[in-house]
Amino acid sequence: MTGSFEPDPARILSAAFFARPTATVARELLGKVLASRAGGVFTAGVIVETEAYLGSDDPGSHAATRGVTARNRVMYGPPGCAYVYLTYGNHHMLNLVTEGQGVAGAVLVRAIEPVSGLEVMEARRAGRADSELTNGPGKLASALGIDLGHTGVTLGGEIAVYDAAGVDDDRVGASGRIGLSAGHDLPLRFYLTDNRYVSRGRTGPRSPGRAVGGQMRGTA
Question: Which option is the CATH number for 9-192: 3.30.70.330, 3.40.1550.10, 3.10.300.10, 3.40.1190.20?
Fold first, then answer.
């Protein structure tokens, strides 16, 4: 699938797509095209892996706090915005805000398959190529030029998600989330079973040396 992608403004997903239950959005984002114009350069990739993060009852979520905080405020809306945070001091993690205004929810984009701007992505990733280019949330954010400066931006501009043909259920896997110390057992990770760009992280409790995971509390 790696190649070129012609962006059509008419196919940019609106806020209404994201203003729905987070797990539904996470599943339906598979096969859509995530694009960035960071640095004035267009790069894009097909979303092949996501994780849903819910509200205060989700122990793996940044919203599992005593109300709204400076960090998780963006998760409470409006839907259709970007929520970017830093983990392990150097990995940016791109989340897409979901649910209605005032309800916490976001989808972590865990992996994409590049379809445009491949040379730029490789340069940003210091020459990494093939599936290693974007088969993890920190990797794809780096390849797309996404950083903390994108937190709170409305999707459809410098960061956008384009509609594409849906993915049949027989190609979709679901599992617990990766890299969490709590809430890892909830079946809120969705991925394309036949795609080599899906990350190699394992579900289960976080352990020392574990690859970059999801919205781990206290790490961003």
Answer: 3.10.300.10
